[in-house]
Amino acid sequence: MSRIVTVNSVSLDGVMQAPGRPDEDPRDGFGHGGWAVPYSDETIARTMGPRMAETGSLLLGRRTYEDFHGYWPHQPADNPYVPLLNETMKYVASTTLTEPLPWRNSTLLAGDLPRAVTALKERPGKDIVVLGSGDLLRTLMRHDLVDEYVLLIHPLVFGSGRRLLGDGVPPARLRLVDSVTTGTGVVLATYRREVTG
């Protein structure tokens, strides 16, 4: 059985919007795009490299998929994330996209999303990793489908922006299973869902 693992950069107040590039996601007037980049360091690379090697496939929402497709296939091959993102199987949750999808190794999830994701989890294999994809992630949380949260918590407060957790997310008990602090003040915290009952 596979696990659903989310990997997300967040600010101290839970904002996950546009961590990578200034133009990544300016919705609602968010003007802080690219906020995570100055905090990248060797500790993050050394910690996240092995984690990402456990990725069997990616599960992405439409917006994240389109953003990644517009960026990653055009990056230099020596970037360690390029082969991961280009070659890994990508499952896309969307009600507006149609197949064939433009990025190789991509397929739409058909039908009821929770049921489709449950079927993916029932297959043997490595982790199914969710990157970004806030709306998708909250849907998965509402259906108790996320097994592990890998959060890169940055020492920033924005006061506005799209947050990882919001209204409508059900209560959950999590257990901290690993944490690393970088020289730039980022805390890489891994939380695992506690199964009750």
Description:
This protein is α/β, with parallel strands linked by helices. 24% of the residues lie in helices and 25% in strands. A hairpin with a 5-residue loop joins β7 (174-181) and β8.
Give a brief outline of the structure.
The chain is built from five helices and eight strands. The chain has helices spanning 42-53, 62-71, 81-87, 113-122, 134-142; strands at residues 4-11, 55-61, 89-93, 106-108, 127-131, 148-154, 174-181, 187-193.
Q: Descriptors for this entry?
A:
24% helix; eight-stranded mixed β-sheet; globular; alpha/beta; 197 residues
- Average residue pLDDT: 94
Helix and strand element order: EHEHHEEHEHEEE
Structural class: alpha/beta
Residues in β-strands, percent: 25-35%
Poorly predicted spans: none
Number of strands: 8
How many whole angstroms does the radius of gyration measure? 16 Å
Shape: globular
Distance between the termini: 20 Å
Percent helix range = 10-25%
Q: Helix count?
A: 5
| Spatial order of the strands forming the largest sheet | 4-3-2-5-1-6-8-7
Q: Please outline the major beta sheet.
A: 8 strands, mixed
Show the helix and strand layout:
Blueprint: E1 4-11, H1 42-53, E2 55-61, H2 62-71, H3 81-87, E3 89-93, E4 106-108, H4 113-122, E5 127-131, H5 134-142, E6 148-154, E7 174-181, E8 187-193
Parallel strand pairs: 1-5, 1-6, 2-3, 2-5, 3-4
Antiparallel strand pairs: 6-8, 7-8
